[in-house]
Design a protein that fits this description.
By secondary structure, the protein is of the alpha+beta class. It is built from seven helices and nine strands.
Length: 232
């Protein structure tokens, strides 16, 4: 079964890569293609980051080629875009590639830590289900009270170089009141974008952090820098 899932994912990635090659594009598109092709697939999230990067690169290349053609031959550009859309690459990516990846990732554990000073104890590391939700649970420890602002405790993903990739929503408490011994849950939906695909490809761990802490500002700055780098 695992081998079948792997073949489905690899086949879908090859399809997107082929589309990109057929589309051509400028130097920016070529650079995006090269970067996507170089992403590793042996990390925690397997083919997922590379698949997203190659799909995004193909879309960007097609769009760039359409814009370029439109300047000199609007009719030909319109036909090109129509042909491209008719290939149904977006539908295939969403209905074939992503579901295959989700099945392949089911049960994968992501090393998870709690930042120093937070009154939390995890039952286990975050574990992926078959819809890219990484979930775990735990209990508040000594120091937690009904006034603890637990909504500020968020999961932050880091790569193997220690750089922040992205962060999720705050932890959840059933009756919305914290306190020592009370249970909480963490639910982190892994959604990869073109600006953070390279980071997710090297995912190392997720750390539960307090977003009001000074250290979290560094997290936000690193994520912002990654977004800006993609725009350039």
């Amino acid at each position: 079964m695992k081998q079948t899932r792997h073949l489905l994912v690899v086949g879908a990635i090859a399809l997107v890569a082929g589309v990109f090659s057929a589309c051509g594009g400028g130097s920016g598109a070529g650079s995006a293609e090269a970067e996507a092709a170089s992403l590793p697939t042996d990390g925690i999230l397997g083919e997922y980051p590379k698949a997203v990067a190659e799909y995004e690169a193909a879309e960007a290349a097609a769009s760039a080629k359409y814009d370029e053609m439109k300047k000199t031959n609007p009719e030909k550009a319109s036909q090109f875009w129509s042909d491209y859309l008719n290939q149904g690459n977006t539908t295939k990516f969403k209905k074939e590639t992503i579901p295959a990846i989700e099945k392949a990732l089911e049960g994968k554990e992501i090393p998870t830590e709690v930042a120093e000073g937070l009154p939390l104890r995890l039952d286990k590391s975050l574990t992926l289900d078959n819809s890219r939700h990484a979930r775990t649970s735990g209990k508040f420890t000594v120091g937690a009270t009904k006034d603890t602002k637990y909504s500020n405790f968020v999961p932050v993903a880091f790569d193997t170089e220690g750089k922040a990739i992205a962060f999720g929503d705050g932890i959840r408490v059933k009756d919305f009141i914290a306190g020592e011994g009370k249970e909480f849950t963490v639910d982190y939906f892994i959604s990869i974008k073109k600006h953070d695909a390279a980071g997710w490809a090297k995912l190392a761990k997720i750390v539960i952090m307090d977003k009001t802490n000074e250290t979290f500002k560094q997290v936000e700055e690193q994520i912002k820098a990654a977004k800006e780098a993609v725009k350039q």
